[in-house]
Amino acid sequence: MKQIWLIAFFSLFMVHPVHSQQLSEKLSFTCGEKITLPFLTAQSYQTIDDWNFGVNLFFNVIFPSQKKIKLTTKTGNLTTSGSFSKISSPALSSSISPFSKASTKVSIIETGFSGRTVFSKPIAFFQQIDFSSTSINAITDENQNYAAFSIKSQFQNETKTKFNFSVTGGIYHFDSKIPDSWFSQNLFYPEMNVLALNAQGGISFGGFSTIFHTNLYNSPWGQINFSFRNEILLNKKNFSFSLSQFYAPSDLITSSQKNISPLYQIKANIQKSSFHFINAPLLLNFGLTIYSDLKLSTGDFNIKTSSGMKIISDNYSGTLSLNINFSGDLSGNTISDLVFNNFDFTSVSVGIKNYFTTGKIRTNLNGTANFSTDEKNNFVTSQKITAGISFNSKQDFSLGVTTEFYEKNFIWEKTKMSANLSAAFQFPFCILNFHLEFQE
Predict the structure, then answer these.
(1) Closest Cα partner for 192 from 170, 222, 172?
(2) Cα-Cα-Cα-Cα dihedral sign, residues 327, 331, 334, 339
(3) By CB neighbour count within 10 A (0-12 exposed, 13-18 middle, 19+ buried), where does 134 fall?
(4) Residue 67 — very low, low, confident or very high, per pLDDT cuts 50/70/90?
(5) Does 14 have pLDDT greater than 60?
(6) How far apart are CA 30 and CA 70, in angstroms?
(7) Whole-structure pTM value
């Protein structure tokens, strides 16, 4: 069975013959290694032109009083997330799914190894100390782009209500910003270092949890700018409701030099699940997400909706989703004077995902269709079909093929095709990975 799918992958080159120079441009190969020991994890990926690496060293220290602390040291081409990302990208994500809930987890700086597609990260140095209920860490990189720290603490009272707090701060390097033209609205500022802070507070009890973020940014011109974010999650048996909000009252520049104009965002999600037994246990999940953002300086707004159904059984899981997006603008000085202008449809997308499992073999067949209008009011459509199969054992193999079609005003414009083959070989304390990808 594996040999058949390998032959199918390489037959793509016979269907789409290319010269050797063209082949080198369309074919990419990545290999990787991961070593896992009781006190160390190391990983590296290589391509023909580049490579990355990461090392994680960890151990416990036990004092005579039986108190224990954990020390973690990481170095390499590290990726950052957690509260570090909340400072660089404080706003809500405008991408939505019917099955995505608000995140009420209080976070600190988190790091990970770069994957097989990330080779641009500079070498960073990370250190963390974990006590029983407190964590402290710090990170910097070889180019001195930033030096940041974070601390998190948590406790629980007699009513089993949990309280979590964290503070993250750092000095971030800004490259000089030069206006694009004499009429540019972007102000000039020289190369400099600025301060940015993030504070989080969370509370949870029963099926309810909430978190509040406050960000502080020292602008290149000396002002102090703030942003605020709140997320609420309610879980009740087979029902859940979440609400997320973000508010930036003034222009601000984040730690990654992203400009955010005065902005308000809101996102709500509701999900309901039910169990059934039709020859086998079956879980049905229904979800709806509504998202909106409003640019406070211009009145421009977007509204996005995403609804869907998910089915999960022993050997099958699938989702069906429908996304509808609108845009427009508001005018008026007071709430009673508000007027909706230019309220227009912008896009519709339909998606379906299917996953089948038979023993150690897993297959998938996914498809999406998008319908939208561009700036010139052309009707633009696209379709994407993805098929794949994987074999899970001590030697894992997976094969995927993707085809995309693009049309404008019902006239075909172009087709894209890609295929990828991955293999993983497991040995004691070591895993070897290989990934081959072809893009037409």
Answers:
(1) 172
(2) negative
(3) middle
(4) confident
(5) no
(6) 34
(7) 0.88
